[in-house]
Amino acid sequence: MKPFLLLASRAEDAAAEDEYEAYLRYGGLEPSQLRRIRMEATPLPPLELSDYSGVIVGGSPFTSSDPAEDKSDVQHRVEHELAALLDRIVPEDFPFLGACYGVGTLGRHQGAVIDRTYGEGLGGVTIKLTDEGLVDPLLRGLPESFTAFTGHKEACTVLPSHAVLLASSAACPVHMFRIKTNLYATQFHPELDAEGLVTRIDIYRNAGYFPPESADMLMEDARTFTATEPMKILRNFVELYAH
């Protein structure tokens, strides 16, 4: 089959490797079937979409709704390159799954309002599927409600009229949506289990996401949750689009 493409932007090697391994594990992929480009490290090379089965955008430290003057040169470059790629992906309805950062990238590209109104802290939340989500093929096999891990400063406040809302939480009304037939974005992390979240809390304890002294408490809290259903989204994405 043609490989999938993972576009990553985590600068910390430990976090980047843990994310990549999670996508391999829960997508049921071999390394040869998931090509990764670390966009924070190098400009995006020329890409032929026809070389891939689909494109996945992983989580990111970047906050797309921040004022332009507060963004680094690297963030401006990454945002410009992703927007240009979406200019090609969206008209083709080419298989796309954006996890967490995908809401900021695909959402902004399609005219959604992305801001800090509905941010959620690090931890487990209950996700509930909409009627449309219950019948969407990417959510095949998932129950109406399930636990997933989150941690985001921004979220979608207003979806564009042509988007289909697929999932929500009590604190964040847009947790997953679809554009056209094959373009998806989730606010929760479909690749993240409890130990993966613990790893990220440890890595980012001094990165300004939360008070460093709260890291141990957050890690203990993460271990009280079990998230197994969101990973089915990754396997479904692979099974739907591998060719």
TrEMBL record:
| UniProt xrefs under SUPFAM superfamilies | Class I glutamine amidotransferase-like (SSF52317)
Q: Which organism is it from?
A: Arthrobacter ginsengisoli
Q: Which domain of life is it from?
A: Bacteria
Keyword Cell inner membrane in record: no
Question: One GO MF term, please?
Answer: GMP synthase (glutamine-hydrolyzing) activity
* Ranges for domain Glutamine amidotransferase: 48-192
Name the chain's protein: GMP synthase (Glutamine-hydrolyzing)
Query: What enzyme class is recorded for this protein?
Result: ligase
